[in-house]
Amino acid sequence: MARRDRLAPIWVIWGLVALFGAIETVAWFAAGGIPRRPGVVAQVLTAWIVMITLASIASRRMGTMAQRIRAHETTHQATLNELEQLQTQNAILEIIARSVDVTLAFQALASRIARLVPCDRVGLALLSEDGQEFQTFTARVQEDEHRNRPRPEVVFKVEQTLIGSVVRSREPLTVPDVAQLAPDFLDANVLHSAGFGSALIMPLISKGRAVGTLNLVSRGKDAYEPAHAAVIQSIAEIFAVAITAQHLQMAFARQRSTEAMSEVTLSVATEINSALQTIIGHCDLLERGYPDPDLQRDLATVVRQAQRIAGLLDKMRNAASDRLQEVETAASQAGIPSSPEGFGEPQDTAG
User: Fold this and answer.
1) Which residues contact 41 (CB under 8 A, 6 or more apart)?
2) CA angle 212-131-111, nearest 5°?
3) Strand 198-206 with 209-218, pairing
4) How far is CA 101 from the centre of its chain?
5) Taking 50 as the threshold, does the pLDDT of residue 2 lie above it?
């Protein structure tokens, strides 16, 4: 259709030439036939040569102009697509900056993602900490179907799923026909049962580690090409970084909470132990000052229970110290900074 529109002016030029020839032929036959005088024939031939030459030049010039216009249109469309990608990335950064919940940001940005790559649903699959299963979320891109908050949906195992294979390969996957893979993959079967025909699955990779997938599905078949994956590559990278940051923030909060509980435990245990030692000392003085057997028996019971409590407090202090060391070691291995300011500093990965 677009090609016909571009060729329309050229066809108009040659159509006018043909129309002029037809009118001239009709006029000659109406006047009694083709003129036989050499001067008239030469004049007519010269006029036709000039007309055809001008039509050819005009057609060539219009063809050149059409090519330039097409080139400008292509460049303009590419610029618009790039601008849309930048706007979407900026929106992602703004929303993620306002909310620590990546799934909430995903829900708010689903319609923007659908403008970059047309789709009927946008999905987010987050890999669990043990790397054995996915928690999936689905966002509806149509305004009348839009949800205010994300809702967890199906939990998939890594094995026998398309999203699991994408996480292992760390490469985008385009599925032209979901029905063909439905017998072999559980998530493909779920999509096929829901009426979807094709899918695009993008891995979310941050710091060399896959944390999930970003999934686009369409009800039609053959809806996606490798070029679509390139369009949302940067968006997938931003989501991956945001998910990693959220995990680090949660781990950092757990670390600080554990540290605070351990410090409180150690402090309280020290105070109680100090009080117990005071009780044991006074019992010893009473035992020496009052030789009554019944009193000494009762004091011995108090001392034994106090010493038992002191032993339990020692175990509590040791357990709290060990737990604190375990948390610090785990945080160090996970790359969690020792202070909030450290989140903005590059981590040393040498060695």
Assistant:
1) 34, 35
2) 15
3) antiparallel
4) 13
5) no
Task: State the Cα torsion 76-81-82-86 to the nearest 10°.
Answer: 140
What's the first-to-final CA gap in the chain, in angstroms?
61
The string of pLDDT tens digits covering residues 145-188 is 555 555 557 888 888 899 999 999 999 999 999 999 999 999 99
CB of 163 closer than 8 Å to CB of 138: no
Rounded Cα gap, residues 255 and 251, in angstroms: 6
Count Cβ atoms below 10 Å from residue 58 Cβ, excluding itself. 14
Amino acid at 266: L
- State the Cα–Cα distance between residues 185 and 164, nearest whole angstrom: 10
pLDDT tens digits for 243-284? Answer: 887 777 777 777 777 778 878 888 888 888 888 888 888 888
Rg (CA), the chain: 40
228: Cβ–Cβ under 8 A, 6 or more apart, which residues?
117, 174, 200, 216
Helix (H, G, I), strand (E, B) or coil at 227: helix
Neighbour-count burial for 87-99, b at 16+ CB within 10 Å, e otherwise: ebbebbeebbeee
Torsion, CA 131, CA 135, CA 141, CA 145, rounded to 10: 180
From residue 205, give the alpha-carbon distance in Å to each of 136, 212, 243.
Answer: 17, 8, 10
**Beta carbons within 10 angstroms of residue 133's beta carbon:** 17
Give which of 19, 47, 52, 53 is closest to 35, Cα–Cα.
47
- CB-CB contact of 116 with 87 (8 Å): no
User: What gap in Å lies between CA 321 and CA 314, rounded to an integer?
Assistant: 11
- Amino acid symbol at 46: T
**Which single residue is written with the structure tokens 């001239």?**
24
Q: Which residues pair with 139 in a beta bridge?
A: 122
Amino acid at site 336 = I
Phi, psi values for residue 144, rounded to 5°? -75, -15
318 vs 332: CA distance, rounded Å: 21
Please state, in angstroms and rounded to a whole number, the distance separating the CA atoms of residues 153 and 151: 6
Element (H, E) at 133: strand 133-140
Assigned token pair, 98? 């306002």
